[in-house]
What does this fold into?
Amino acid sequence: MLEKALSGSKGYWIWMFCLMTLMGMGGVIYLYQFTEGLGVTGMSRDIPWGFYIGQLTFMVGVAASAVMVVLPYYLHNYKDFGKITVLGEFVAIASVIICLMFVIVDVGQPIRALNLFLHPTPNSLLFWDAFVLNGYLFLNILITRVTFDAEKKQIAPPKWIKPIIILSIPWAVSIHTVTAFLYAGLEGRAFWLTAILAPRFLASAFAAGPALLVLLCLLLRKITRFDAGEKPIKKLAVIATYALAVNLFFVALELFTGLYSDMPEHMHHFEYMFIGLHDQLGNHNMLAPFMWVSMLLCFAALILLLVPKWRNNFKILPVACVMLFIGLWIDKGVGLVITGFVPNPTGHIVEYMPTWVEIGLVVSIYATGLFILTGLYKIVLSVRGQVDA
Amino acid sequence: MGGSRRDFLKTAGASLALLGGLSAESLAAPLSEGELFRPGEPLKEGNVRWAMVVDLKKCAGKDLSKLFEACHKIHNVPDMEREKDKIKWIWSEPFGHAFPNQEHEYVARPYQEKTVPVMCNHCERPPCVRVCPTQATFKREDGIVMMDMHRCIGCRYCIVACPYGSRSFNWRNPRPYIKEINPEFPTRTKGVVEKCNFCAERIARGKEPACVEACTDGALVFDDINDPNSKVRQLLETRYSIRRKPVLGTMPHVFYLV
It folds into this structure.
């Protein structure tokens, strides 16, 4: 079936070559980072995790959110998602591959990365994260392969795949829970030491993922003959709306506990996030403008999505989805990781700014993900005979 | 009251044992003074457990850089150019930064300067060991938290987990930044984590840690804390001592006399 991705229109090829150029650029940048060491990034002894791990965290969420189409379709027999379920699962596959690439570019000794499995260590959440992410990738490849093959042959998928699909539902929840546990189980980092981190991760994931799927559906409607239909798009928008509202509620809970309790250890992080922290060298508030933009985007998106008239308007909906996606991306892909490290364990304020190496690699890894996703979508549409606009 | 509390702990402990591998006895053991935050693990009599005692009175107002240099020199710790790449095994902090929950506005003047030597605490319950995905960092029988530089994949989860900022990462190849290489101790490659090892290589030869040796006035004392007659036990029994961030339950084995 893969050969379907190897033939396409001029537009398809231009797009794929653009992505490949970015991927090639990423390869060169990675070679540079690999030779020089991670010193070419903005990370430091005080900010040991930065942009890469932030992206990993965010994209695990996007991967997990496939469950928002899988669950209604397979568990509740919500037929309207029939046409887009495989699209959601393909987003999951591309996202998990993106995540795994972010793990590889972040480790200092990538050649030894397999030590993770040579010396399996169940008390380390990173071991579990690698395990559940790879498992989720395998499940989704298997499920899409089998169900889509059946669709192509116009027969019902084999019965044995159903329990595996059911398994993929809690598995999706597990990948983001384990990712939250990476942070939430550390006694030394007060900012993440909160039981609400995993639920908050899931809420923001179930907002960002469906919003992305809405955008993809609308895009496909425009540039191909594939039409997801108004009903499923509107349903996805409702899911994103609720999840966004729940996420913002969770953020408010965090702020209340952190600020009202008046405990310096908890307050400092939130202060750094939104106002900045003072020391003898002055005010450090590099992150604050981004966080305010994030908050504004999220609240504006929520208002646009809450009003049914606006949410159901396919001119306004994509705008709201883009705002939501960027807002949550800043919150989780940038703010969440960095804030946990400021101030550092000895109470000093050291800030972080990614270097061009990090930005370049992040862009090229996303390009790789898009390349995979485009190829997979192309296969679906070719088989369904809905490629050309 | 005490009985029912014990019983509760026992039941809770027994059920937890299944989950976390904790033993019911250690949870049900009566809390003794100084162990309020975490029921103490029974001392294994006869086992050596290394610990350090730092006398803050003796450190106040002194130049401690000699101790740090002694350590960094014999361990081939590089002197990186940029602050963000710095590698530190032992360094000093002002009192409020070393003990963030115990400072106040009126801390005596000398302690407001960088007078507290800080290093790896060789915790009894080290978070870094708990999170390491490859067991590249591990705790030995004698309490020393060690690094296997050949197994470390450089994920830096241990740095994230350490509540004391005691771990450093080789962001670049450290070798060009070592002034004079000590052939008796390995140098490191880029991409691995390192930290104070309580001079395990010197203890093995019956020597004291380098910082302790470099410190002529006895401000740093190193010994077996399981031995009731050891120097550290005697100091801890006669002077008031504190540990860094005790509330976290990591049980540091570097003690500070105030």
